């Protein structure tokens, strides 16, 4: 896959070299010098212009008649100069990236650092501008200070970082506005245009805002600030609704203003290195794919564990809970990638088609196969840890789960009867995300009596440690060296930091770059989203209607004991997350 652009402004040598895509926005292109009047009413002239554009398009020029056709452009704008029959002129593309909600937590923590890292790595297009948009009053300089203060990205200790940072900050601007005001977005549009003069403008909006204002922003941005002749894309952060109905409604509303192709629903777990590697592991190694079914796999575990609580995000979290926050999206996406059939190609639609098929083959999740928990306060030595309900933004009688475990099944030929166990929790003893594949027993094992330990524990297990310390390891049985025949457990271990010197990019870097490049493979399609909500909505409704009380577990513990009963019911023992098994 082509990654990154060469940027004249970078000094780093990076493998990224080309921006060679099938999408019309990605190469330096030529467009004829014409005036594009979006409101052109004379049918003959309009027809001529359309024909001209069509002819040019089929000869390799961009299909940039959008503003003519959709009539939604903010004004009667021109591209190039008004000389209808003059020779085509090279127009280089530029991209304007607007971070909506620029004053917020995610923007500071992830989006600006990821953009800077892409710039540092020469992965951003040669011509780009970044705009922050939010209600807070800020000058360009104040935004720049905010960005440089909060840049704690993986490269900020590298050579020339300061110089590159200055260069980057000079391309960052701020516009204060309301999220519901078309006027304010029109003002933004004018500012963007000033930076885009003489270039083919492409625009990317990143909605880093609370979900209740997604649609307002999309309405304002699409009506008043979309690109007139290049593309306009919108990255939408989760949550995409809180159940089937609200998610369907959100999709319908967004589609009033955007096509599905313009919507990039982000699930940042899909941008994690190990999750990207899952398909590579499966489909490019003959040793794994033949084992990838009920014939050899006993169970699959998808585990997310954080060693801190909601910490400032209680207000958001209490309306969602851990099932919506982690399971319905991050863990289910991993499951779909893990379990899908071989896609026809690596194209986005082929992969997403296979993921939807898996999701639609899943058995309806039932309450008996779900357990929920909530962390309570805990004192350890001199240190005391708060309960979830100690968060001032959380109601004291909240039943919102901060922990959940669930057993899911895929009713297809490959996975019939194999439990897929999910476990996700906050304020646990460790921070970790893993995919654990436990294999079946070796039938008629000749060495059974040679094991020092119980054979039941001695099946093969493949672990993909998504974070921290990315690793893939396979637990095998091995002869203890020496005379005699005694077997013990050992690991074939691929620890990334031991094998690779290159730092692993943050998931947001990968996903932002993909959105810029128009690569949709790692973004969620609306039918995937629909299938994901169908799976979880009934159980979420039941939990809430029946006011099921979560099992309390101490902050920093391994979570509720109920998770072990659930696993045992399906003949599963959770893998050891203590970290000493790799
Ligand atoms: N933070 C995180 O770690 C993660 C966040 N997300 C998602 O990303 C999005 C942004 O998250 P985050 O940055 O934490 O959100 P914030 O709560 O920090 O909100 C972002 C900005 O939106 C504006 N805002 C906040 N509340 C409201 C409101 N009620 N009405 C109108 N505007 C408001 C504020 O800007 P101003 O007042 O200046 O307009 C704020 O700076 C959300 O959808 C969230 O669910 C997803 C994964 C992780
Ligand atoms: O989406 C979310 O993810 C974070 C965890 O992300 P990670 O990349 O740090 O593992 C989680 O803390 C948050 O609650 C959730 O909304």
TrEMBL record:
<dbReference type="Pfam" id="PF02781">
    <property type="entry name" value="G6PD_C"/>
</dbReference>
<comment type="pathway">
    <text>Carbohydrate degradation; pentose phosphate pathway; D-ribulose 5-phosphate from D-glucose 6-phosphate (oxidative stage): step 1/3.</text>
</comment>
<dbReference type="GO" id="GO:0004345">
    <property type="term" value="F:glucose-6-phosphate dehydrogenase activity"/>
</dbReference>
<keyword id="KW-0313">Glucose metabolism</keyword>
<dbReference type="InterPro" id="IPR036291">
    <property type="entry name" value="NAD(P)-bd_dom_sf"/>
</dbReference>
<dbReference type="InterPro" id="IPR019796">
    <property type="entry name" value="G6P_DH_AS"/>
</dbReference>
<dbReference type="Pfam" id="PF00479">
    <property type="entry name" value="G6PD_N"/>
</dbReference>
<dbReference type="GO" id="GO:0009051">
    <property type="term" value="P:pentose-phosphate shunt, oxidative branch"/>
</dbReference>
<dbReference type="GO" id="GO:0009570">
    <property type="term" value="C:chloroplast stroma"/>
</dbReference>
<feature type="compositionally biased region" description="Low complexity">
    <location>
        <begin position="1"/>
        <end position="23"/>
    </location>
</feature>
<keyword id="KW-0119">Carbohydrate metabolism</keyword>
<keyword id="KW-0560">Oxidoreductase</keyword>
<dbReference type="GO" id="GO:0050661">
    <property type="term" value="F:NADP binding"/>
</dbReference>
<feature type="domain" description="Glucose-6-phosphate dehydrogenase NAD-binding">
    <location>
        <begin position="99"/>
        <end position="277"/>
    </location>
</feature>
<feature type="region of interest" description="Disordered">
    <location>
        <begin position="1"/>
        <end position="24"/>
    </location>
</feature>
<dbReference type="InterPro" id="IPR022674">
    <property type="entry name" value="G6P_DH_NAD-bd"/>
</dbReference>
<feature type="domain" description="Glucose-6-phosphate dehydrogenase C-terminal">
    <location>
        <begin position="280"/>
        <end position="574"/>
    </location>
</feature>
<dbReference type="InterPro" id="IPR001282">
    <property type="entry name" value="G6P_DH"/>
</dbReference>
<dbReference type="GO" id="GO:0006006">
    <property type="term" value="P:glucose metabolic process"/>
</dbReference>
<protein>
    <recommendedName>
        <fullName>Glucose-6-phosphate 1-dehydrogenase</fullName>
        <ecNumber>1.1.1.49</ecNumber>
    </recommendedName>
</protein>
<keyword id="KW-0521">NADP</keyword>
<comment type="similarity">
    <text>Belongs to the glucose-6-phosphate dehydrogenase family.</text>
</comment>
<dbReference type="InterPro" id="IPR022675">
    <property type="entry name" value="G6P_DH_C"/>
</dbReference>
<comment type="function">
    <text>Catalyzes the rate-limiting step of the oxidative pentose-phosphate pathway, which represents a route for the dissimilation of carbohydrates besides glycolysis.</text>
</comment>
């Amino acid at each position: 896959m082509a990654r990154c652009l060469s940027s004249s402004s970078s000094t780093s040598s990076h493998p990224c070299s080309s921006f060679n895509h099938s999408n019309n926005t990605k190469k330096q292109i030529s467009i004829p010098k014409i005036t594009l009047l979006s409101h052109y009413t004379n049918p003959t002239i309009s027809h001529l212009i359309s024909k001209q554009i069509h002819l040019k398009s089929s000869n390799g020029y961009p299909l940039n008649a959008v503003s003519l056709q959709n009539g939604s452009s903010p004004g009667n704008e021109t591209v190039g100069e008004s000389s209808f029959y003059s020779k085509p002129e090279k127009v280089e593309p530029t991209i304007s990236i607007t971070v909506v909600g620029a004053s917020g937590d995610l923007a500071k923590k992830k989006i600006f650092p990821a953009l800077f890292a892409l710039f540092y790595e020469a992965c951003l297009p040669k011509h780009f501008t970044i705009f922050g948009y939010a209600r807070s009053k800020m000058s360009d300089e104040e935004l720049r200070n905010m960005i440089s203060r909060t840049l704690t990205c993986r490269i900020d200790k590298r050579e020339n970082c300061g110089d590159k940072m200055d260069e980057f900050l000079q391309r960052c601007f701020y516009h204060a506005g309301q999220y519901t005001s078309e006027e304010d977005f029109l003002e933004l549009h004018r500012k963007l245009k000033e930076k885009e003069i003489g270039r083919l403008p492409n625009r990317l909006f990143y909605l880093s805002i609370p979900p209740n204002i997604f649609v307002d922003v999309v309405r304002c941005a699409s009506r008043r600030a979309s690109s007139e002749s290049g593309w306009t894309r919108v990255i939408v952060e989760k949550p995409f609704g809180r159940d089937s109905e609200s998610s369907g409604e959100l999709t319908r509303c967004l589609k009033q203003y955007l096509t599905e192709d313009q919507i990039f629903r982000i699930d940042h777990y899909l941008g994690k290195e190990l999750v990207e590697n899952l398909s590579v592991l499966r489909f490019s190694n003959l040793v794994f794919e033949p084992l990838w079914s009920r014939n050899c796999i006993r169970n699959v575990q998808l585990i997310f564990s954080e060693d801190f609580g909601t910490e400032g995000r209680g207000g958001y979290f209490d309306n969602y809970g851990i099932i919506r926050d982690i399971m319905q999206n991050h863990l289910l996406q991993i499951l779909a990638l893990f379990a899908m059939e071989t896609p026809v190609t690596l194209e986005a639609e082929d992969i997403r088609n296979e993921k939807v098929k898996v999701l639609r083959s899943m058995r309806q999740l039932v309450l008996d196969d779900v357990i929920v928990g909530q962390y309570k306060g805990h004192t350890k030595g001199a240190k005391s840890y708060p309960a979830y309900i100690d968060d001032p933004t959380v109601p004291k009688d909240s039943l919102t789960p901060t922990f959940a475990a669930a057993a899911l099944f895929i009713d297809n030929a490959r996975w019939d009867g194999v439990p897929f166990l999910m476990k996700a929790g906050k304020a646990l003893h460790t921070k970790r995300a893993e995919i654990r594949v436990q294999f079946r027993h070796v039938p008629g094992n000749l060495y059974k009596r040679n094991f020092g330990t119980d054979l039941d524990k001695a099946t093969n297990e493949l672990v993909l440690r998504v974070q921290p310390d990315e690793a893939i390891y396979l637990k095998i049985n091995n002869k203890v060296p020496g005379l005699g025949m005694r077997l013990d457990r050992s690991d074939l271990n691929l620890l990334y930091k031991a094998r690779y010197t290159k730092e692993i990019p943050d998931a947001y870097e990968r996903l932002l770059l993909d959105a810029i490049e128009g690569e949709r493979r790692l973004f969620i399609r609306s039918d995937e989203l629909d299938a994901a909500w169908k799976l979880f909505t009934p159980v979420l409704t039941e939990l809430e209607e029946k006011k099921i009380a979560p099992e309390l577990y101490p902050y920093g513990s391994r979570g509720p004991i109920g998770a072990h009963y659930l696993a045992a019911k399906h003949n599963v023992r959770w893998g050891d997350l203590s970290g000493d098994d790799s």
